[in-house]
């Protein structure tokens, strides 16, 4: 047998030599120096004969029938080994190949990575196309650079590759990795440059099908050069991934803060409710305490009277005859002291009773707080999972408007049987919250297996299999409390890896049911039994009142009923997917025997394939029990009601209140004494019954109205002082009483102990029922100035950190024996000393809570960097620090260490990330040396001022939430050029002025502060990078109308406000509502101040204003004289009135389109608007000049100009006005400019009342008629140029204005002939200027002569036509027009005329049909052409006409002529040139 094997090996060696071109005989005899051997395909079934090649460095064996690795013991020089496409099942036989650098074992049957520990030089390892399930056995391969594990069964990475820090190339394609969390483990490979998870040669990893897969990888592995066979070295690719990840982090940070804010609001409501409920017990306790202290004073005085008055230690009443009589009566009764003692005992019992009620309310409050936190506790982890999975794991909280919410609600009610829960006192169930779970990873697995099942079945049965999809309740292990971590693990990873129960059944199958009783009753039974065994006295129903249901989507597949004798496992039911047990076969001990129809339909299911159970909904519910819940909103509700009803018979405490009254009325009833308001020497001597300060030992000032004490340091012998029930806010008057041993300052308003000093012998101090808040400062004061204190009472103060107050006091005041009436045990004192020792920053605490990582890990998380880094890698107390160990510290996390101050950080110069949340810090001190800080977290402290951080110029994130900040100091953030996140929530900040120069800010969280005025928002307008703003809970939210749209309008770059993303419709609504409004805030922002009383002029042109609100008349004083608002979009000076619904369609058309032709339909509307406008109160009494040119105004009534009663100059040029109306109340108006509008004629209401108008500008309109101007009796200047006046009779209507001195009519059709000039000069005797040409005596003579001549011709000649005189000349001869093609004009007139114009002689009979002949066209240079024509005819022209653009406006002329009137020069706000 052995010989045959040797012969076989010899044949194999011969084949090996033959394939490599070697002579077997020579190799056999002399050996070989060959360093490389190759064997492909067949002919080498075993690895033999390699001992003949001692220098072998490379061996390649491909496609052989080799089942094991052997025969390599002599290959000590081997560096490269290929055993591929063979049948290798195990890695072995390589122990001696220690120089091996490359190992290729792909396409084999290897199931485990093993036996590679000694190959420490290995650089390349290929194990692709095997059956490997776990990455393991690579710990010693420190030099490994290339690892190929593609085409295996690997589903997790873990920390197995952490030792391989030199790894550069990794291929994991074609495996079963399905979770992003597994991929984040690769971030610990610093040299990784080439990663492949989706190689086209292999199947796809499930993780590659997830959303944002590439973004996730590129963000976490920024050093990658190739990814999935693609080049990703471009910088733009990495920046895009980083940008996307940062947006995700900011978004979820915003959402988590919103959840935290909602929790805080709920807790605040609970606290408010608790305070209201405690009000009655507190009032009763205060009442009894007052009576008690009064009786104690009386008792002390009785004892003092018994001893006599000589000792001076007793206190007496103020001189009062009646009091003296009552005192004599009291002393005369021998049993009075006994009565006082009896009443004191009764009072103490009532105080104890009400204190018990306070404790009960406090206990219920803590239960509800715990439940609220538990309810909200799931939401933040859900959001964190969403962030980590980049949205592939999504949660959605349902409302009644969601169909799926109603489905879950109805499903639970339909599967709740009241009969099953009767024994537990449960009558119903109430759904409190439903959260929809969308786990894309688990859903893909579920759908893949479900689809495979359908493909394996007949197509005819596919619909029936789809009907096997069912919604069932997951049955939690009743003996294991459903903890948040366990539930999250199920929702994230499914049921396969999440079973924590010790029961083997749960590993075999997922247990489900279609009945609430099957899911819940075992839990209730277990909790009741546990409660019974522990003999607790709490209410039973509170144990199970709240619960969680997990509703799953299940594919039951082939299902059968379970056999009683067979255990439930896949091996016993190999051909089915699930089994079920009807309810009647379940254990009676658990379910009980009940006769109910529901039991027929109730089943318990066992599904073997975990992937076919998909968690879909998490339901929080509460059982409705016959015993009402102990809730702040139920049990003690009547406490508040009885207070308002004044001891009504039906209230809860009516009997107790009656009993209180009986106790109060018990004998003796002490008469009230007059209250002292101040204290002087006489009063002190009267109270002490002595005139010597040093003899006063006890002084009782209880129950007065004292707020100050005189200098008590004179009372050198004072040992006992009672100042309870007074009005003290501080105790700085109580100092240097060296012999004082007892001080009662309870029931006052003390807010600070500052100034409380020199009481070295004080042993008993009562500070209860005051307003002390700052525990650190007050304890420091007591430590410093009171060294012998034995008892201290500080109850019922609004302390800021009440949870650790007791330990802090005991640890600092070491002489105390009693605190708040409770004895201090040795164990408690020891714990307090340990607690205090932990409140100091020491070398040990620095080592324990710090890290030396140079870079922040690329993790999708919103937690502070210091927290993340110290969790990943701590220095640890075991480290032996070297000389410069503190310089290596980059991260420090001292959250929750109860620090009172920051110390010993002077040497941490390289500290980058620090967190000091949830401590007792009152000042930002001790960080001066940490100038390299990039992130600083100080949440949950008692800091009142931001200071000491101005030099931290590298700061990128600052968080000071839940502190006592009142403002933001100027210039604090000016030098922080990298600050992008600032969180200041839950403080007392009133102004944002300190943020004006924080230009790099991206996120600002400042919710729940005291910001009240909308001007504060203007401090943020320069922050162009701000995209997330949270102002929720500030006063401005309620004060500012349309607050959200207001902020969106003024901060257009925002993407989210108050935790809600900003949608495009909101942006448009904000523009519509606030765009174009001129408000006081806008003016204050532009001017830099809000002192409008010193402003007289305001220029706001081209600002897109639509409404300019006359806020000044209503809110702030002003003295504006001039207001310029040209080139805006103003429609009204006040918000537009409500639309009139009674208008007809034609009237609405007229209102929108004035040129529509329906002028008459608007008359009734005009009258109504005029009447309503006249009733409005006047505004802006100082305004005299108003510019509203080029605003698109079409309706003067809507402008409400009638309210500007003192307006003198109104400029409305360049609008769409068609009617002059709504100006009747402007009785002092002197100049009106309506040039370049659409006025056709004047209606009856245009100038209905006598007017003071001196100048009226109507140029460039559409005037054809000039009637209804008779009321303009004072008009001196009228400008009618460029209208459509063509009938000379219209000009004759100007006779009604005899005061007219200046008139323009050029550019009208009537000006084609020169008759109008003679006629106007003749008919207007006071006219001094016509068409910008002065009128002199010669002109008047010529006019009279010409008109007389025309009249003579008219009488002597027969007219050519029978038409009436319409302004055309009469004559028998028709003169042809003169056409001039080349004319040289003096004075530079050539450029005013075209190359071909027609000039018409003065006297001409024009043809009606040829209207264009002889016309100076109505264009921009027509006036200049007419002037040139007059110049040619020898008519003198005024010099100022040569530059029409420089003509001073009428306003300017009036300004110059009327110096006594307070008007600005027209050059400042000129009337704009015509367009």
Q: Residue share in helices?
A: 25-40%
Structure summary, number of beta strands: 50
Alpha plus pi helix count: 36
Outline type:
extended
End-to-end CA span: 119 Å
Q: Catalogue the unreliable spans.
A: 308-333, 588-592, 638-650, 1109-1117, 1136-1143, 1152-1172, 1358-1475
% residues in beta strands: 5-15%
* Arrangement of strands in the largest sheet: 1-2-3-4-5-6-7-8-9-10
Describe this structure as you would to a colleague.
By secondary structure, this protein is an alpha/beta fold. It contains 36 helices and 50 strands. The strands form 7 sheets. A 10-stranded mixed sheet has the order 1-2-3-4-5-6-7-8-9-10, with no helix packed on it. α21 crosses α22. It starts with a helix and ends in an 18-residue tail after the last helix.
Structure, briefly:
This protein is α/β, with parallel strands linked by helices and 1475 residues long.
Please give a handful of descriptors for the protein shown.
ten-stranded mixed β-sheet; 36 helices; 1475 residues; alpha/beta
Write the layout of secondary structure elements.
Blueprint: H1 2-19, H2 24-30, E1 36-40, E2 58-62, E3 80-84, E4 102-104, E5 124-126, E6 146-148, E7 169-171, H3 180-183, E8 194-196, H4 213-220, E9 226-227, E10 230-231, H5 235-307, H6 321-332, H7 336-377, H8 379-388, E11 393-397, H9 403-414, E12 426-439, H10 440-456, H11 462-466, E13 469-474, H12 484-493, H13 504-508, E14 510-513, H14 516-534, H15 541-544, E15 546-555, E16 559-561, E17 578-582, H16 588-591, E18 603-607, E19 613-625, H17 637-645, H18 654-664, H19 681-688, E20 698-700, E21 720-722, E22 742-744, E23 764-766, H20 775-785, E24 791-793, H21 805-812, E25 818-819, E26 822-823, H22 826-837, H23 843-848, E27 850-851, H24 865-872, E28 891-893, E29 913-915, E30 935-937, E31 957-959, E32 981-983, E33 1003-1005, E34 1028-1030, H25 1036-1039, H26 1043-1050, E35 1056-1057, E36 1060-1061, H27 1064-1074, E37 1077-1078, H28 1080-1087, E38 1097-1099, E39 1107-1108, E40 1122-1124, H29 1145-1152, H30 1163-1174, E41 1185-1187, H31 1196-1199, E42 1209-1211, E43 1231-1233, E44 1255-1257, E45 1277-1279, H32 1288-1292, E46 1302-1304, H33 1315-1323, E47 1329-1330, ...
Parallel strand pairs: 1-2, 2-3, 3-4, 4-5, 5-6, 6-7, 7-8, 8-9, 16-17, 20-21, 21-22, 22-23, 23-24, 24-25, 28-29, 29-30, 30-31, 31-32, 32-33, 33-34, 34-35, 37-39, 38-40, 40-41, 41-42, 42-43, 43-44, 44-45, 45-46, 46-47
Antiparallel strand pairs: 9-10, 11-12, 12-19, 13-14, 13-15, 14-18, 15-19, 17-18, 25-26, 27-28, 35-36, 47-48, 49-50
Helix pairs in contact: 4-5, 5-7, 5-8, 5-17, 20-21, 21-22, 26-27, 33-34
């Amino acid at each position: 047998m052995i010989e045959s094997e040797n012969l076989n090996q010899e044949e194999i060696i011969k084949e090996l030599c033959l394939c490599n071109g070697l002579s077997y005989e020579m190799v056999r005899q002399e050996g070989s120096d060959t360093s490389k051997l190759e064997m492909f395909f067949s002919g080498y079934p075993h690895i033999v004969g390699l001992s003949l090649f001692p220098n072998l460095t490379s061996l390649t064996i491909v496609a052989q029938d080799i089942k094991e690795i052997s025969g390599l013991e002599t290959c000590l020089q081997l560096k490269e080994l290929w055993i591929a496409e063979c049948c290798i099942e195990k890695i072995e036989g390589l122990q001696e190949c220690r120089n091996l650098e490359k190992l290729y074992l792909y396409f084999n049957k290897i199931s485990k990575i093993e036996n590679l520990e000694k190959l420490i030089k290995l650089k390349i390892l290929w194990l692709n196309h095997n059956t490997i399930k776990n990455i393991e056995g690579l710990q010693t391969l420190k030099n490994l650079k290339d690892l190929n594990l593609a085409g295996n069964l690997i589903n997790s990475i873990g920390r197995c590759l952490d030792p391989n820090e030199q790894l550069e190339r990794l291929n994991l394609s074609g495996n079963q990795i399905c979770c992003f969390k597994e991929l984040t483990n690769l971030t610990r490979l610093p040299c990784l440059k080439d990663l492949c998870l989706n190689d086209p040669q292999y199947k796809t990893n499930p993780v590659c099908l997830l959303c944002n897969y590439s973004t996730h990888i590129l963000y976490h592995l920024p050093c990658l050069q190739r990814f999935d066979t693609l080049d990703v070295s471009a910088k733009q690719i990495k920046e895009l991934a980083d940008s996307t990840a940062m947006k995700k982090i900011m978004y979820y940070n915003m959402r988590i803060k919103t959840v935290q804010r909602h929790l805080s609001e709920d807790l605040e409501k609970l606290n408010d409710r608790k305070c209201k409920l405690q009000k009655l017990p507190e009032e009763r306790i205060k009442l009894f305490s007052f009576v008690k202290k009064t009786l104690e004073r009386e008792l002390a005085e009785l004892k003092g009277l018994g001893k006599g008055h000589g000792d001076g230690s007793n206190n007496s009443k103020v001189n009062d005859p009646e009091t003296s009589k009552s005192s004599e009566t009291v002393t005369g009764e021998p049993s009075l002291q006994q009565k006082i003692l009896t009443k004191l005992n009764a009072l103490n019992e009532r105080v104890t009773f009400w204190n018990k009620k306070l404790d009960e309310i406090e206990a219920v409050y803590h239960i509800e707080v715990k439940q609220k936190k538990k309810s909200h506790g799931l939401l933040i982890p859900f959001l964190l999972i969403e962030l980590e999975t980049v949205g592939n794991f999504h949660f959605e909280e349902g409302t009644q408007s969601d169909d799926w919410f109603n489905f879950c609600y109805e499903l639970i009610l339909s599967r709740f049987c009241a009969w099953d829960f009767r024994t537990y006192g449960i009558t119903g169930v109430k759904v409190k919250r439903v959260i929809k779970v969308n786990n894309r990873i688990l859903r893909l697995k579920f759908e893949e297996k479900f689809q495979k099942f359908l493909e394996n079945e007949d197509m005819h049965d596919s619909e029936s299999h789809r009907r096997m999809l069912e919604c069932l309740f997951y049955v939690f292990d009743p003996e294991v409390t459903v903890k948040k971590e366990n539930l999250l693990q199920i929702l994230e990873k499914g049921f396969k890896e999440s079973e924590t129960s010790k029961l083997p059944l749960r590993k075999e199958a997922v247990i489900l049911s279609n009945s609430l009783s099957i899911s819940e009753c075992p839990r209730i039974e277990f909790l009741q039994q546990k409660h019974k065994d522990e003999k607790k006295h709490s209410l039973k129903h509170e144990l199970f009142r709240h619960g969680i249901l997990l509703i799953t989507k299940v594919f039951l597949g082939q299902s059968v009923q379970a056999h009683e004798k067979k255990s439930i496992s896949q091996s016993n039911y190999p051909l089915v997917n699930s089994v079920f047990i009807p309810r009647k076969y379940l254990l009676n001990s658990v379910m009980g025997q009940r006769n109910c129809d529901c039991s027929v339909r109730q089943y318990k299911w066992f599904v073997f394939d975990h992937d076919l159970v998909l968690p879909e909904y998490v339901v929080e519910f509460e059982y409705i029990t016959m015993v009402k819940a102990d809730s702040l909103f139920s049990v003690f509700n009547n406490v508040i009601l009885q207070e308002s009803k004044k001891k009504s018979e039906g209230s809860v405490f009516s009997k107790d209140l009656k009993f209180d009254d009986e106790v109060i009325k018990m004998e003796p009833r002490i008469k009230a004494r007059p209250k002292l308001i101040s204290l002087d020497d006489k009063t002190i001597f009267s109270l002490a019954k002595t005139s010597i300060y040093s003899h006063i030992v006890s002084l009782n000032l209880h129950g007065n109205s004292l707020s100050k004490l005189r200098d008590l340091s004179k009372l050198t012998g004072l040992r006992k002082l009672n100042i309870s029930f007074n009005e003290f806010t501080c105790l700085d008057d109580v100092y240097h009483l060296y012999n004082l041993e007892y001080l009662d300052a309870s029931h006052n308003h003390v807010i600070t102990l500052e100034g409380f000093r020199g009481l070295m012998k004080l042993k008993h101090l009562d500070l209860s029922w005051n307003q002390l808040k700052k525990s650190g400062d007050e304890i420091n004061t007591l430590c410093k100035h009171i060294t012998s204190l034995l008892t201290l009472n500080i109850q019922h103060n609004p302390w800021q950190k009440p949870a650790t107050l007791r330990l802090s006091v005991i640890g600092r005041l070491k002489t105390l024996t009693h605190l708040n009436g409770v004895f201090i045990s040795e164990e408690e004192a020891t714990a307090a000393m340990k607690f205090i020792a932990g409140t100091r920053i020491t070398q040990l605490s620095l080592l324990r809570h710090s890290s030396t990582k140079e870079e922040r890990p690329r993790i999708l998380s919103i937690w502070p960097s210091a927290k993340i880094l110290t969790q990943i890698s701590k220095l640890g107390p075991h480290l032996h620090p070297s000389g410069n160990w503190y310089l290596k510290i980059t991260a420090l996390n001292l959250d929750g260490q109860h620090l009172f101050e920051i110390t010993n950080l002077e040497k941490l110069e390289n500290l980058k990330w620090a967190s000091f949340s949830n401590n007792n810090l009152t000042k930002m001190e001790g960080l001066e040396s940490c100038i390299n800080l990039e992130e600083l977290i100080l949440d949950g402290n008692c800091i009142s001022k931001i200071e000491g951080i101005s030099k931290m110029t590298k700061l990128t994130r600052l968080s000071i939430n839940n502190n006592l900040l009142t403002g933001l100091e100027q210039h604090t953030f000016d030098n922080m050029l990298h600050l992008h996140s600032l969180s200041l929530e839950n403080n007392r900040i009133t102004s944002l002025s300190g943020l004006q120069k924080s230009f790099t800010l991206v996120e600002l969280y400042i919710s729940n502060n005291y910001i009240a005025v909308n001007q504060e928002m203007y401090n943020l307008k320069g922050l162009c990078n701000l995209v997330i703003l949270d102002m929720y809970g500030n006063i401005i939210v309620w004060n500012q109308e349309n607050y959200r749209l207001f902020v969106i309008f003024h901060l257009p770059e925002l993407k989210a406000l108050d935790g809600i993303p900003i949608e495009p419709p909101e942006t448009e609504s904000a523009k519509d509502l606030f765009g174009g409004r001129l408000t006081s805030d806008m003016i204050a922002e532009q001017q830099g101040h809000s002192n409008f009383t010193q402003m007289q002029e305001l220029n706001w042109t081209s600002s897109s204003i639509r409404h300019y609100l006359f806020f000044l008349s209503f809110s702030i004083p002003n003295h504006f004289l001039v207001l310029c608002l040209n080139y805006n979009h103003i429609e009204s000076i006040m918000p537009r009135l409500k639309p009139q619904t009674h208008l007809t369609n034609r009237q609405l058309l007229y209102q929108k389109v004035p040129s529509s032709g329906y002028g008459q339909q608007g008359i009734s509307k005009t009258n109504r608007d005029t009447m309503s406008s006249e009733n409005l109160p006047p505004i802006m009494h100082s305004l005299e000049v108003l510019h509203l040119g080029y605003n698109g105004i079409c309706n003067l009534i809507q402008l409400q100009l009638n309210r500007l009663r003192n307006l003198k100059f109104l400029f409305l040029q360049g609008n769409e006005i068609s009617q002059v109306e709504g100006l009747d109340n402007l009785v002092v108006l002197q100049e009106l400019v309506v040039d370049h509008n659409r006025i056709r004629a004047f209606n009856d209401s245009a100038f209905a009342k006598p007017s003071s108008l001196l100048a009226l500008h109507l140029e460039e309109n559409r005037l054809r008629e000039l009637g209804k101007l008779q009321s303009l009796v004072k008009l001196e200047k009228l400008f009618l140029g460029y209208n459509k006046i063509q009938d000379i009779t219209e000009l004759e209507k100007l006779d009604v204005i005899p005061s007219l001195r200046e008139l323009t009519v050029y550019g009208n059709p009537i000006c084609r002939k020169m008759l109008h000039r003679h006629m106007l000069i003749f008919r207007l005797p006071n006219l001094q200027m016509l068409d910008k040409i002065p009128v002199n005596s010669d002109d008047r003579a010529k006019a009279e002569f010409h008109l007389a001549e025309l009249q003579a011709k008219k009488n002597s000649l027969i007219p050519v036509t029978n038409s009436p005189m319409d302004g055309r000349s009469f004559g028998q001869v028709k003169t042809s027009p003169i056409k001039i093609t080349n004319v040289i004009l003096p004075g530079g007139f050539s450029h005013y005329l075209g190359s071909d114009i027609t000039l018409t002689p003065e006297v001409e009979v024009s043809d009606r049909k040829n209207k264009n002949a002889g016309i100076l066209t109505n264009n921009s240079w027509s006036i200049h052409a007419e002037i040139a024509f007059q110049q040619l005819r020898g008519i003198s022209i005024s010099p100022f006409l040569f530059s029409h653009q420089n003509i001073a406006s009428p306003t300017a002329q009036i300004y110059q002529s009327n110096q006594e009137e307070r008007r600005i020069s027209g050059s400042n706000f000129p009337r704009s040139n015509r367009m």
